[in-house]
Amino acid sequence: xxxxxxxxxxxxxxxxxxxxxxxxxxxxxxxxxxxxxxxxxxxxxxxxxxxxxxxxxxxxxxxxxxxxxxxxxxxxxxxxxxxxxxxxxxxxxxxxxxxxxxxxxxxxxxxxxxxxxxxxxxxxxxxxxxxxxxxxxxxxxxxxxxxxxxxxxxxxxxxxxxxxxxxxxxxxxxxxxxxxxxxxxxxxxxxxxxxxxxxxxxxxxxxxxxxxxxxxxxxxxxxxxxxxxxxxxxxxxxxxxxxxxxxxxxxxxxxxxxxxxxxxxxxxxxxxxxxxxxxxxxxxxxxxxxxxxxxxxx
Length: 298
Ligand SMILES: CCCCC/C=C\C/C=C\C=C\CC(=O)SCCNC(=O)CCNC(=O)[C@H](O)C(C)(C)COP(=O)(O)OP(=O)(O)OC[C@H]1O[C@@H](n2cnc3c(N)ncnc32)[C@H](O)[C@@H]1OP(=O)(O)O
What we know:
Largest sheet: 6 strands, mixed
Distance between the termini: 40 Å
Structural class: alpha/beta
Bound molecules: ligand LCMDX3IU
Strand order of the largest sheet: 1-2-3-4-6-8
Number of strands: 8
GO molecular function: delta(3)-delta(2)-enoyl-CoA isomerase activity
Strand content: 5-15%
Protein name: Enoyl-CoA delta isomerase 1, mitochondrial
CATH class: Alpha Beta
Order of helices and strands: HHEEHEHEEHEEHHHEHHHH
Pathway: Lipid metabolism; fatty acid beta-oxidation
Helix content: 40-55%
Subunit structure: Homotrimer.
Enzyme class: isomerase
CATH architecture: Alpha-Beta Complex
């Protein structure tokens, strides 16, 4: 498809891809193998024109980590759906077993040049701006674990339905990696679960089991695993009965203060991220975290 070719040539969203130079070089990776960049789509979109509802299936093995390519593809799909006035609702779910999304792809932040880190952060911002500010009704059908950026992705949606499986967890666990959730991650969480819950969750980098997540309002509903998608579809039908304009204005009213703060500070936020993530101590923390993930598996 033409847009996929454009994606590969990185010509589609120029705003995402230009980035100023940031001066420092990251340490080179010593042990982490880079995955081959697959050319198969990382996201499958099924759009039913009769209902006006699109379903975005994340299908980037093994864990739907949010890489530069993944996020670029996500942004392009979102832009296309947003521009289609007939598309009123979006359900986001995972085609990978047991995982909704493992969050930002750590390999995009480890051993990479400042320029690469800046380019990556810009597309992370873009994904958030597009989803948090979407005119569509957005529902996360969380059918697996959803740490860090995966949790953020679901927090950008209007409603979260999670599989009631105690093996799964969700939360902003950044501090456990030795990194800090930026202000717009933090504010998205505050806007959902309140200040006190966010403070505890973020300081401790808590990952919540579904029942605990429901208790603090991090997810809105728990359902048996095999019903996540059908309940998401039913919920969408209900949300779409509300007069569109009134719902959209209300959503903007609730979210725009946070959105505007990032919009007006994008470049500073990128500079902040790049200078933070390329620090030797932070790179070391990321390396140790990746090692821990591998050891846990062994
Ligand atoms: C003061 C100024 C502040 C400015 C702002 C500064 C900084 C902010 C910066 C960044 C914010 C980042 C947010 C993030 O999202 S960081 C990512 C955090 N993610 C995690 O912690 C999740 C880690 N993964 C897991 O816990 C498990 O993988 C998971 C529960 C998702 C699935 O478990 P499962 O057992 O099924 O799979 P694994 O065997 O663990 O993993 C398979 C394979 O995938 C690799 N992998 C897992 N997660 C990631 C990831 N996020 N990125 C890249 N790769 C990942 C894992 O290492 C395995 O690889 P391999 O061994 O098969 O090669």
